[in-house]
Amino acid sequence: MKYGLLGIGQAGLRHFEAFKKIRNLKLIGFTEYDLKKANKFKKLNNIEHFNNINELIKLKPDFIVIALPHFLRIEPILKCCKNKINLLIEKPLVLNSNELSSIKKYISKKNITHTISFVHRYRKEVITAYKLIQNSKIGKIKFISETMISQKNKSLPKWIDVKKYSGGGVLLYNAIHSLDKISYLAKSKIHEVYAKKININNKIDVEDIISISMKFKNGITAQLIATFVPYETTPKWETKIFGTSGQIDINIRKGLELRSKNKITTYDYSKYYNKNGLNYNFYTQAKSYVDALKKKTQPFIKIQDGINSVLVVDAIYKSININKVIKLKY
Ligand SMILES: NC(=O)c1ccc[n+]([C@@H]2O[C@H](COP(=O)([O-])OP(=O)(O)OC[C@H]3O[C@@H](n4cnc5c(N)ncnc54)[C@H](O)[C@@H]3O)[C@@H](O)[C@H]2O)c1
Question: Is 32 in the pocket of ligand 1 (CB under 6 A)?
Fold first, then answer.
């Protein structure tokens, strides 16, 4: 199999390292706007650099990975869909529902297999939590609390602070992963949202703190708080799932704890992460996607999940703007 890569920034390189571990798969070319970066990567890995996606498409790759800034999705998505090329698209699928309407007809066609990089769903601690919930270890879920504390360090790209390029702040760069993850654990779509945003850094036109209350179609309530502060902080990413007979606390990149029947069971994944690295989920995602393409089966994360998340993001911003609860229409 052969694939192409659009953008070799932070995420693009993680995908490259992940797909490199898969046998009989070759990167046949990449696009990258920053020529200095492109030349270095080309020399180091002996991979062809293209000025645009058209030349890459001519080589008929089995799939293309889109790891570009958020505002650059429409053209590659449409070109790949029209040329029947499968896509692994970094989140968010597109900036908003206006953009969504221009691709929806093409992206949902049945004969091509697209996925969206909600890569945290591939984390061992998330998959274990899902299994424990399915095995009725905590009963029926009633409430989920999600806290995501991160720091906007200087090595992050500048475009993420500009709304017309990023579509939004902490919600689109970070918290969208949380929305996907808790929908997966809740096994339900988000039904309504009420949100508030705050700016610590007033010099940027996107939010760096967001607080979202939500209700799922199956009745579960959840609260999400995400921060992306412009100073040093202690990063934390915690999910607490409260069921009728127990609780699961997920600590991302560390492990989880199950409280059930007056017993605490700890799943410590520090050895797993020490051995495989903190971004091992990019590899499990890559493997899962390639397997789906080979076997012609549905990918673990479907493009519909990407579509739904754009609708949820739009509803969240609408709620912030008009200070009202917004019900989702899928
Ligand atoms: N899943 C994750 O954990 C994760 C982590 C980081 C970023 N991301 C996502 O990955 C995507 C990229 O983010 P990033 O942080 O890697 O950004 P980045 O700025 O580091 O990478 C984007 C790259 O695209 C290049 N580029 C810009 N315009 C281009 C064009 N027209 N053609 C070709 N290359 C072009 C830039 O020069 C840059 O190298 C975003 O969607 C982001 O949300 C996901």
Answer: yes
- What's the pLDDT tens digit per position in 243-294? 999 999 999 999 999 999 889 999 999 999 999 999 999 999 999 999 999 9
Q: Which atom of ligand 1 is nearest to 279's Cα?
A: 3
- H or E element that contains 198: strand 190-198
Note the residue count of the chain: 330
In short, whether 75's Cβ falls inside 6 Å of ligand 1 is no
Q: Which residues pair with 214 in a beta bridge?
A: 193, 222
CA angle 80, 120, 252 (to 5 degrees): 165
* Full set of structural domains in the chain with CATH: 2-119 (3.40.50.720), 124-277+303-327 (3.30.360.10)
Lowest-pLDDT choice from 109-113, 114-118, 149-153, 212-216:
109-113
Buried/exposed 299-316: b ≥16 CB within 10 Å, e otherwise: bbbebebbbbbbbbbbbb
104: its two tokens: 């929806």
Query: Is the pTM for the entire model greater than 0.85?
Result: yes
Please state, in angstroms and rounded to a whole number, the distance separating the CA atoms of residues 314 and 299.
Answer: 25
Q: Which ligand 1 atom is nearest residue 31's CA?
A: 33
- Parallel/antiparallel/unpaired status of strands 326-327 and 190-198: antiparallel
Q: Is the predicted pLDDT of residue 111 greater than 90, yes or no? A: no
